[in-house]
Each structure stands twice: as structure tokens, then as C-alpha cells.
Description:
The protein has helices at residues 17-20, 27-34, 56-67, 74-83, 129-145, 150-158, 180-196, 233-238, 277-292, and strands spanning 46-49, 89-93, 115-121, 164-171, 205-215, 227-228, 242-247, 266-276. By secondary structure, it is of the alpha+beta class. Strands 1, 2, 3, 4, 5, 6, 7 and 8 form an 8-stranded mixed β-sheet that branches.
Amino acid sequence: xxxxxKRVAEPMAESDSDESSGNDxxxxxxxxxxxxxxxxxxxxxxxxxxxxxxxxxxxxxLLQQVxxxxxINLSELTNTLISQNYIGCVIKQMDIPDDDEDDGMDEDDNxxxxxxxxxxxxTEKKDLECVQQVRSLLLDHxxxxxxxxxxxxxxxxxxxxxxxxxxLSERYLNIPxxxxxxxxxxxxxxxxxxQRKQMKYSxxxxxxxxxxxxxxxxxxxxxxxxxxxxxxxxxLHEVSELSFTYSVEDDRDTVVGGQWDSDNPxxxxxxxxxxxxxxxxxxxxxxxxxxxxx
Length: 294
């Protein structure tokens, strides 16, 4: 599986050996020259790979984007994902040919994890510490901000006959949403293979914790609309049978890729969605159509 992304190059000074000796710039001119971003499209090829032990830190970092400062054993959750590497994938940059190895890139860059797609059976694995912590965290937030939904949410989590899959779809913000389509398709195929082998990847429902945000300043009568960091997840939300949103404003200083400052007009949130299994394919069909038209 391959995808492409667009990047804006970091501001940098460019010089040409034939011209630099003949041009003198004072400090102010050089500062102005360097302060202008260079709009440049860089084509980067990605591919999906099975998780392995070397992905531990990259996967754990992506999980931290979701759970931030929450009391969850992310090391155990990461190891759980790696141990079931026949399900899901990580996204990495494709190997660069030998001729291109001297382009200034760190040799470890190609092994960096840019995205993750997987699912954990939180019914079967309910005795794992990390799963217990996830369940407790979300029950507490449901009770605090959507108390009327708590009985349904609790019943779902404690029903041993109807298995629930914790759907994990994470990537860095500069990775375009188009990459989510083959990742979801791959995950569904992996689950179908496991089901044919009588493995416990047949789910009645999926649960996802989605990164969201909204403008500050809304009132109780009229809250600002919730915006999804991964835009395709808005369509998953539309087919969910239960959802609630809670603030992670106090945890935002651990956001990967930069801090939110105190003047940021956006409030950091998490939206929990419960998606019936038969609606996942419905949402994916809509996601494909939406992304194809953009």
C-alpha cells in the first residue's frame, strides 16, 4: 500500500556556488530572506507493514496522542498490539534506494512510524491492566459528561456475549486522510482471515476514541460544533449509535508535535464513539466517496 503526502519545506537559505561569491547581504536582508517559507511539494511514498518489536516507541507515541496524561499502561497496550501483529499495520516511509541515501536524511527516518491501524478485543482481554484502565477512564468520562448514556455504555462494556473492539486509527497530522482508506480495508481483511480461523475478532460493536476540538466560547445553550482531527472519523461518528465528548484541555501540553499555548482559541477534546459492526462498512463506503471527490 502506498500513499503520498505534501509538505511545506522548513524556511532555509538557498545558495548557489556561482552566485554567492558575487552577492553580499547585510544581516537584515538575510533575516528577511530566511523568514519566508519555501512552498515546495515533496512526494513521500508510504507503505503498510506488520507491527514488530522495533515499532514499540513509535506506536506508543501515537497512542499518547489519544490518551495524553490518562492513567493507562501504554507500554502494555503497545506490546499487546505488537503481539497480535497479524491484525492491522503501521505506516512507514518506503525504503529509499541506495543512490539516494546521501540526501541528508537520518538513516532511522525510514523506520519511523507515521500511522497506526489496529483493533483490540477489549471483551476478551478485559483482564489486561491497560484494558481495565481504558474501560474505567471512559466510564468515568461518560458518567461526568453524558450521565444519561451511562447505563447503555456500561452494559455494552460488561456484556461478555457481545464482543467490543477498540478501534485504533492514529497518524501524524500532516498525513492526508486518503491513507485511511487502504488501512481500513486492510484491517477488515485481516479480521476476516482471523474469523475464518475461529479467532476472536468478530465484533458486535467497535469503540473509538477520536481526537476532536472546538472553538472556545460556546454557551450551554449553543456549543460550538466539534471538529475531527482525522476528518474521515466524522463519517464514523454519523453512523455511531452512542457517543459523548469530553475535554482534555488540562492534558494538552503532551500533544505530540507541539504544545498548545494558553491563547489557543481551540479546546482539545476526545469524542468516544460506539459503532455497530454492520455500520463500519457503510461508513467506509461514504469515506471512499467523500475522499474521491476532494
